[in-house]
Write a structure and sequence with these properties.
The complex is a heterodimer of chains A (235) and B (340). Chain A is α/β, with parallel strands linked by helices. Chain A contains seven helices and ten strands. The model of chain A has no long low-confidence stretch (mean pLDDT 96). Helix content of chain B is 42%, strand content 18%. Classes of the chains: A alpha/beta (235), B alpha/beta (340). Chains A and B meet through α1, α2 and α7 of A and α2 and α3 of B. The structure holds zinc ion (ZN).
């Protein structure tokens, strides 16, 4: 079974093709460039270099978010369309889980992968390997990095933080958590699309039509509208 | 014998998710539109982020419905035509990336289409084009006079310098406390009223085919405020009729003048505001005495749809226009990209 994995949820663009027991090919960049222009050519190049065509793919796994709304949508749109038209299963995996999968394997405690969420906020969650399987300890959410660090202080074990946006929040986290916070090395900050592929490989396919990104947050206009309606109804 | 040509069109530039299949450039085999209008109504206008979210929810559903209706498969398609721009960038991105994925998966040529070229080619589904022709394009985002000397060649001879006609309609509708989208409401009210309130007409320079509607919009708002301050009661139907008459006067007069100067054989109406009854009636009356054919497509081809994108795509496909997999959404796309 060949799995194609697509991750465009942040600046990093990752494409991978795996077989059951082998990473056949991976393409990763971490530059601030337009995903819309580059994703399809990257998929085309990678498959061609691996002597594969679209029809050889048996499953698609996509990073479902959180992340940049537009970025996640580009990956999800391509993944949905490919899976639908090739009539193969589609699996969505948390964009944060991908980061935790790689670094958490050789770390006994929990991993907090993070992306910047602007205005001091981060998208994060808590993941930990238990008996060789990655499990979700705290589901993906958005909150102030300060609040998150304070929450994690009560943990008995150290927490490993990972993500390209660490430089924006490492100071605050280190200040609050001290020794309890550990930080991954630069070479591990990019999400590995091969990890994404393996995370999704054994999961059941979803209903393709109703599959949507996990934005975590409502659209701003929607949130305001709900807020305004609440106020109206309580008056 | 020449094989039949099938083109799939994909359109996601604003708040309609649309897929269509057109045979030989003119015959609709399937035309599916999922409108988001009910979702945007509560905000009083299209919210770009919400439009993009809905496109992701709808696109594969709409694709499947179009193929099922047509009873065709991707291997039957000669090309996939997709709206490259103009429009909301986040919304356009969904159609563009889905189209690229389909083109790649099946090895089908990809044809990029300018949204306004699509609106103009909606006419070809109802009547074969006769050149040279003039198209009056009026929609929420556009007010343009486009001259075409032949298939696939566009020359914008006049455009709005500020608000599009549809925008002015929406803003005036808000002033009159009408729900979004305002255009149809004003049109309906105008039918019940009389144009008794003097409002300006922006003719601009003598030789210009450009338009300007922001002055008219401000005049309407001032009229309402002044009446409020004096404690006078305006008859909203009359205000709607007066506003609509000003818009239509300018649109029709400039179109007629250009028709004569450019000696065209056909005048085409295009864009969402083409649904306006007042505009249709006046154009029909004006051109009934002219030696030029007036084409007004049915409503479902005037508002955003993908049949028009496929119809335009059919011409561009024949001309050899293709996009590669690095095609991007282009919110500021110029219609002259199609001219060769
Ligand atoms: Zn339009």
């Amino acid at each position: 079974m060949k799995v194609l994995a697509i991750d465009t949820s942040n600046y990093a663009l990752g494409i991978a093709v795996i077989d059951e027991e082998k990473v056949i090919g991976e393409y990763i960049t971490n530059v601030k460039k337009n995903h819309s222009i580059r994703v399809m050519p990257s998929i085309e190049t990678l498959l061609r270099d691996c002597d594969l065509t679209a029809k050889d793919i048996n499953k698609i796994v996509v990073a479902q978010g959180p992340g940049s709304y537009t970025g996640v949508r580009i990956g999800v749109t391509i993944a949905k369309t490919l899976a639908w038209t090739l009539n193969i299963p589609l699996v969505g995996v948390s964009s944060l889980e991908i980061l935790a999968a790689a670094v958490g394997r050789y770390f006994s405690g929990a991993v907090s992968p993070l992306f910047d969420g602007r205005r001091g906020q981060i998208y994060t969650g808590l993941y930990q390997y238990k008996k060789g399987k990655l499990e979700t300890v705290e589901s993906d959410q958005i909150l102030q990095s300060r609040d998150w660090a304070e929450q994690l202080c009560s943990s008995s074990e150290p927490i490993l933080f990972v993500g390209n946006d660490l430089p924006l929040h490492q100071g605050v986290i280190a200040e609050i958590m001290g020794e309890k916070a550990q930080f991954a090395e630069i070479t591990e900050q990019n999400p590995r699309p091969a990890e994404l592929a393996f995370l999704g490989m054994d999961r059941n396919g979803v209903d393709i039509h109703s599959f949507v990104p996990n934005y975590i947050r409502l659209a701003e206009a929607e949130a305001k509208w709900i807020e305004a309606n609440k106020a109206k109804n309580s008056n | 014998m020449k094989k039949e040509q099938y083109i799939m069109g994909i359109e996601t530039s604003c708040d309609e998710t649309a897929v269509a299949i057109i045979k030989n450039g003119r015959e609709i085999i399937a035309n599916v539109v999922a409108s988001q209008i009910d979702s945007h109504k509560r905000f009083g206008g299209v919210v770009p982020e919400i439009a993009s979210r809905h496109h992701v929810e709808q696109l594969t559903i709409v694709l499947e419905e179009a193929l099922t209706k047509a009873n065709l498969e991707f291997k039957d398609m000669d090309a996939i035509a997709v709206t490259e721009g103009p429009g909301l960038v986040g919304a356009l991105l969904i159609g563009v990336n889905a189209a690229k994925a389909l083109a790649f998966a099946h090895g089908i040529p990809l044809v990029p289409v300018h949204h306004i070229a699509g609106h103009i080619y909606a006419n070809r589904i109802v009547a074969e084009m006769k050149f040279p022709l003039l198209a009056l394009v009026v929609s929420g985002g556009h007010t343009e006079l486009v001259y075409m000397k032949e298939h696939g060649h566009f020359e914008v001879i006049g455009e709005t310098r500020d608000d599009a006609a549809g925008e002015a309609y929406d803003k005036v509708a808000r002033t009159l406390n009408l729900p979004y989208p305002g255009g149809p409401h004003i049109d309906k009210m105008a039918q019940a009223g009389e144009a008794t309130i003097p409002l300006p007409r922006a003719w601009l320079e003598e030789d210009s085919y450009d338009f300007s509607f922001s002055g008219l919009k401000s005049a309407v708002i001032n009229t309402v405020h002044n009446a409020e301050q004096r404690g006078e009661k305006l008859i909203p139907e009359n205000l709607a009729a007066s506003f609509q008459e000003s818009v239509i006067d300018v649109l029709v007069t400039k179109t007629l003048k250009a028709t004569r100067e450019y000696n065209v054989k056909q005048v085409l109406l295009a864009g969402g505001v083409a649904a306006n009854k007042g505009l249709r009636t006046r154009l029909e009356a004006t051109f009934s005495t002219e030696k030029v054919e007036l084409v007004i497509p049915p409503l479902y081809l005037c508002t955003d749809n993908a049949a028009m994108i496929a119809a335009a795509g059919s011409i561009f496909y024949d001309k050899g226009q293709r996009a590669k997999l690095d095609l991007n959404a282009n919110p500021g796309l110029d219609i002259t990209i199609h001219n060769q």
